Amino acid sequence: MVRLAQGGVPETLRILSVRETTWFNIEPKETWESISKLEEWPRWCQGLESARWTQGEAWKPGSRFELIWQPWGGAPLSGGVIMQDQVVSIPGSQDSNAPPLRGISWDAGRGPFRSQVRLMIMADGGGSLVEFVSSWKGWASLIIGRRAVRCADLQRDWLASLREILERVGSHG
Fold it and tell me: Does the residue 123 lie in any domain?
């Protein structure tokens, strides 16, 4: 028997996460400059028909965006509400010129079918390590099934497309 806490959510939350990472031969600043241009994502991301801000200022907490995929992408890759855009120094770094880490997170979906996304851009050697994590909690994690596989495929393709365009531009520019 599952005991429900306030709001009908199980007391012990089950979490299902999809995590994809890719290394880019491009500095974190340039990586973020491309990612931050949400409206341009369809230019390099196969299957993404449109990307736009629907409310608020780009990448500010509380702002909303929408992603339209062909075929349907589903939450959390259909957009959401920005929860956090954070730039932090590398822990333990003595170098004041060390590149920061950048973390973006957003919430998508409704009620028990909510999901969260975290996109991290980290300095790694002479390039960037980008981590893309989508998570479902509670009831959504129990019924997500094939949607998680589709989400992983979209995340992997999104990162591969971004990497290809950034490294092509970087190698010719």
Answer: yes
